[in-house]
Each structure stands twice: as structure tokens, then as C-alpha cells.
Amino acid sequence: MAGAGVVAAGVGAAAGVATAGGGTDPAPTPAPVAFRGEHQAGITTPAQDRMHFVAFDVTTRSRAELVALLRDWTAMAERMTRGEEAFPDGAVGGIADAAPKDTGEALDLPAAGLTLTIGFGPGLFDDRFGLADRRPEALIDLPRFPGDDLDPRRTGGDLCVQACADDPQVAVHAIRNLARAGFGKVAVRWSQLGFGRTSSTSTTQATPRNLFGFKDGTNNLKAEDPAGLADHVWVSAADGPQWMVGGTYLVARRIRMHIETWDRAPLREQEQIIGRTKGTGAPLGQQQEFDPVDLHVKGAGGVPLIAQDAHVRLAAAESLRGAKLLRRGYNFTDGTDGLGHLDAGLFFLCFNRDTRTAFVPMQQALSSRDAMMEYIVHNGSAHFAVPPGVQDGEHWGQSLFA
Amino acid sequence: MAGAGVVAAGVGAAAGVATAGGGTDPAPTPAPVAFRGEHQAGITTPAQDRMHFVAFDVTTRSRAELVALLRDWTAMAERMTRGEEAFPDGAVGGIADAAPKDTGEALDLPAAGLTLTIGFGPGLFDDRFGLADRRPEALIDLPRFPGDDLDPRRTGGDLCVQACADDPQVAVHAIRNLARAGFGKVAVRWSQLGFGRTSSTSTTQATPRNLFGFKDGTNNLKAEDPAGLADHVWVSAADGPQWMVGGTYLVARRIRMHIETWDRAPLREQEQIIGRTKGTGAPLGQQQEFDPVDLHVKGAGGVPLIAQDAHVRLAAAESLRGAKLLRRGYNFTDGTDGLGHLDAGLFFLCFNRDTRTAFVPMQQALSSRDAMMEYIVHNGSAHFAVPPGVQDGEHWGQSLFA
């Protein structure tokens, strides 16, 4: 947390810090998040407020070119997460007759807690790059879930990069510069902006609300629970493959919420669907947000207070043979649906140690029985193997291509 | 500025304040922006960091129903700009068997500098509501400009509401609740999220950068220049019509930037296109960002340092018979274009006293001759009459419908 109290005079307004009402108060600039380590940053890092997520198709057929890109990306990413330009003096310090090596829109901005997290999709493990025998068994092609209405333009991808930051301009700048460096080797397949986090990944964070108005992520795995993370998030040596040890699997789902319909549901029904009270976020039958969910409390007539089809019941580890995952979702609003409504919802991101035994059974339970399904539709989906963190001198994908 | 130093414990993380790196530092919560006054808020208000803009089609044919909606919206808007719910105790304080009157996702959030600004489009002045003879002459149907490639799904609208706030969740919540209250009377025609401001509307603000990486809005009219605002922004009694006195005209343009092409242009060319240096933002031939633009400085061989087709030259008041406007633009990134690129750009908003003599000649000059046109395309456009501020007891549109 060193530096968290340091004031960066003059950058407050541009750094996404509240300055309305003519505010000129500089605000604390958080310390950059370390890029290297045992695990990639951006997973258990306390969830930043904003996100830009991109999925790429790899267009080059050259393994060497792909590896070189991953090497270049690593250096760029490390610099940008320190609050530096993608290339040293890249925006304005180069030759006037050459295109700047950094696009410049984050020049005056601090790191803003930027993390960049890479993942490898199933498509990378075909016959193009000699990786067919390195595909993790856990990196399955996701099954079709009941109610899925997947848009191919929001689905899949050979590579992904998740950029999270407290200033959206910093996240967008990072994705843009990586995309730019990949010109001719990768093409943007889809991208998603998330304007507000809907998960807490640390006990230091207040629980945010999703666009149903409910607190989301109360029961999430947290950074302060290393045993839980070891059990449910990080790939172990016993799991294999070796190149994934210390990594995890990322599932991204674009969940359109039919907010207009939801908004017509009575408060009681909303709370029964979720299984929590809307105000405090307490589980039904409890008093406080962080009181444990008790699925066995009964109300009048012996009926469970938390309904059989309530979201918290179906998603509870108790209902899923102990399965848990780490969520890192973001609210989105992408214009309109052309039918007079906002196109809004939740960009669901989760990290799990084995998607086959965590996300898949959870989503099968939810998509089959969750009362919430009446109000949502999953219209984008992707699955990525997120390799472990890079050590000094290593680059993204080093363990995979070694 | 009263209250600008007040700390709202516990809401920092949810309020869009930088908290990465585990930061738990509460940050200053700016005072709410006054909703009522001579002019609407959200015009000269120091530009907040985030924006959600919506254009509605009016679907009711009843004038009385429309006026009633404007009255309801006014009360909701005033409450929300104070950081309150759209309706008192609207989210969780109502009857359990009724739909909550507020959607709840901003329950724990402060006002975040929220402003809500309404405008009336040309379409409102047809024969549906008896307003045909009240249409201001200045509320023209915008001409087609060279290079326009307008998408009808991003163009026009009978009504608009601009929500600006330092927390995007607060802006989205406001638009959503207004849209909800309008169900059956209005339908969302289009909406646009802006993730980062690209204009300063106050001398207290640092100049932000657009997605070309350049400082934008240096020469903008500022809140601290009432004479300039009177000359260029506010409709006077002499201008008429009476119901618009103290109001202004809003032009919205969705400007897609071909950032991939721009990023391949040499630094010198980028600076010549803009007419400023990229690093400091100083006009070419000057030293500091706020040095006056001098269109007459010549370099080697007597060639003007600021080229004939440079953006700052064409947009300068000196080149436009003194015309100026107040800009309030936002960067956007809306996924992808389906061709391997990010769909990114600038959502241009401006306010002017008479669009016929300010925005239109400026845009004609730019779209005809601006070297920047090679890198942008305007694909959305709308024009609205923004009525004056509401006084105590008044509602939005009161002067129009009186």
C-alpha cells in the first residue's frame, strides 16, 4: 500500500477522481499494482472500478511472430501498469517523422491501479502453432446452457486481455496500444467496456450493486483467503498441465439484463429471486450483509425462506458439492437494443481452478432453475486459460511456448 | 464549494474514487450541484468525468401526458441530483408487494456531481402537441455536412437528457429511472456512454486528452467568463423566442475516430493536423498550452506554422467571424466495428446561442477543409433546444408549454 496517501497535484481531474462542483482537491493516487509475481495481477487484486476487456483472433500463422508479439506485449504491459507509456518516451519523445509509439491519451494520467491479465482461448490450441498437445483438459469448449442466446460477435477468441483500472481512460489506452502493437498479427474479435465493478475481491472493499439494484459479490472468494484461493482458483501441480501451475481459468459471459421487466417486479419477488434483502444485502432470514447464508431457515408453514429457485441457493457452494469461484464482474450499458430499451447488464467474469467442476455445474444449475433467468439472457461467452504470473525476465506465454 | 472537503466514510469504493492497491482511503465527496437556477446545470458546470446521454422518441400523443411526465421527471431529477433516490424511499422503503419506485443501484452512492439537462428536438414541434408555432427558428434541421455518414439509429430524437457525473453508475441510474418513468410515453431512441471527459468547462480543471492523444478544450469557453457565455451560449430576449431566454442550443455528434489510421501518422503530421504540440498542448509557434493561438506566425519559407487546413485554425473564432461555442465532449469506446478494430471516438456535445451562426459554419469549415477529416467520420447527430433553468415550483418545459 506504499504511496497510497501520496497526492499527485494537478492530475486529479484527469485521473477519474471526483471533481464536480469545481473541486480542485487532489485525491490520493494509489500505488501501481505489481505486474510480476506468482500469479497474474487482475485476479485477486482488489477489483478496480472500471474495465476494458478484449478478445483477439490471432491472424498470423507464424508461431515465432506470435511469441514475439507476446514478448513485446509483456514489456508494454509492465510499463503501462507502472503508469508509464507503452514505450519509453513513446508519445512525444520520438522522431517527429515517425508515428509515435504510444498513442498518448494517458500521458497525464497515473497508473490508476491498472492491471493487465492475459488468457489463451481454446482456438489457440489448434494446428497453427504446434500447441495442440498443450491444451489443458480443463480448457473445454463450454457446453450450451439452457437459455443461451450467444452472439458470435461477442463470443470466443484466441487470446484475451482484461484491463482493469480506476480510470477508464487508462484501461482503454492499454487495450488500444496492445491492439495496435498486434496489427497484422491479431485482430480485435470483440471488446467490452464495464463502467462499474459488481464484485468485491477483497475484504477491504465495500460491496457494490449490480443493475438489479442488489449488492453483488458479498460471498465472493476474497484475496485475504489464500486457502480458499488455493482450493478454488489456482491450478496446482497435481492438476496440470505444468505450464498452467499457478494459473487459473477465466470464463466471461455477457449477461443482458431485461431491466425494464425486472423493474416491474415487486420488491418481495425481487428479494425472493435473489435470496437477499435489497437494502442491506443480508441473506433472507439474517440481519446483516455478511451473516452466513443459511439455506435451512424456514418461515411460515415450514417453507424455506430462501426459495428452491433463489439465486443464492443455487449458486451456494453447499448446493454445488463445495464448488466456488472468484467473481470479477462489471456493469455495462451499451447504448440501446433498438427496441426502445437500454442495452444494459452484467459482464460476468470468473476465475476458477477447473471450469468443469466449478463454473459449468454452477451455470447448469442456474440456467436450468434460477428464477432470475426470466430477467436475463447470456449473449456472449468465452473461456480462457490464464497462465501463471511472469517472473523476472519472462514474458506472457513463456510457460506455454517453452 | 461547500462540503467539497466532507468525507463520506464507507462510500469511497463504490463512489468511483480510486481505491486500487487495496486503498480504503475515503476521498472527498463533492457537494451536489444545484438543480434549479437561471440556466440548467450541466452546461457550464465543471465537466464531470463520465456521461450517459439519451435521446427519446415521444410515443404518447397526449400533450397532457407529456406535460405530466415532464413534471414527474423534474421532481425525480431534482432528487437524484441531490444524491437521493428518484422517489423518496423508492428503492426499498415501499410496499413489498409493489415494484420499487427506484431501481436501487445508486443506493449507496453520493450525488457524484450529477447534473441532468433536458433538451427538446425539432420533432417535438410537429402537430402532435400543439407546439408547431413555438419552434425556435434557431432549432433548424441540421444540414448534411460533407463526409457525414449518419446512422439513423444514432441520430435525432424528440427529447434528450444529458446525465453527467463523476460516477458512471450514478449517471446510468438517473437515465434508467427517467426512462422507466416514461414507459408508454417515451421510448429510448439512442443512448451513448462517455467514459472520459474531453473538455474543460472551467478554469479550475486540467485539460483532458481525446483519443488522438491531444489535449482538447484548451480554448473552450469557460464558466468563469460570463461575458463570453452571454455572447455565445445563452439565448437573450432579443434572440427569442421568449420561452428560450436563458436557454441554449445543444448539438450532439457521434464522431468515430479511425484511431488505427491516426496511430500510423507521424508525430509531426499529427501536430500539423491539430495545430498544437502533442506534449504540452501549446499552439504551434508558442510555448505553453494556454498561450494564445496566433494564426499568423510563419516558419521557414514564410509558410504559416499553423497550416491552412489545421483544426485549430478552422475552428478559431478568428476564422469564423467571431463564432464560438461551449464544448462538453466525452471519449467513448463501444466494443468493436466487426472489422477487427475498436469502435472508439469522441461524443461531441456543444452548446451555442444560435446553431445557425456558430456550430453550422464551424462544422461546414471543418468538414470541408479540416485535415483531420481523413481520420474521423460523423455517424450520429442531433439538435436540441435546451430551455432555461427551472425556478422554484417550475418543471422542465414549463416555459414551452405555458
Automatic annotation (TrEMBL), chains A, B:
Compartments in which it is found: Cell envelope
Broad class of the protein's primary localization: other
Residue ranges of every copy of the Dyp-type peroxidase N-terminal domain listed in the record: 40-195
Manner of cofactor binding, per the entry note: Binds 1 heme b (iron(II)-protoporphyrin IX) group non-covalently per subunit.
Keywords of this entry: Heme, Iron, Metal-binding, Oxidoreductase, Peroxidase, Signal
One Pfam family, short name: Dyp_perox_C
EC code: 1.11.1.-
Keyword set includes Iron: yes
Record flagged with keyword Chloroplast: no
Enzyme category, top tier: oxidoreductase
Record-level Gene Ontology MF annotations: heme binding; metal ion binding; peroxidase activity
Domain Dyp-type peroxidase C-terminal: 207-390
InterPro entries assigned: Dimeric_a/b-barrel (IPR011008), Dyp_perox_C (IPR048328), Dyp_perox_N (IPR048327), Dyp_peroxidase (IPR006314), EfeB/EfeN (IPR006313)
GO terms under biological process: iron import into cell
One Gene Ontology CC term in the entry: cytosol
Highest taxon of source: Bacteria
Cofactor(s) named in the record: heme b
Family, similarity comment: Belongs to the DyP-type peroxidase family.
Chain's role: Involved in the recovery of exogenous heme iron. Extracts iron from heme while preserving the protoporphyrin ring intact.
Name of the protein in question: Deferrochelatase
Organism: Actinokineospora bangkokensis
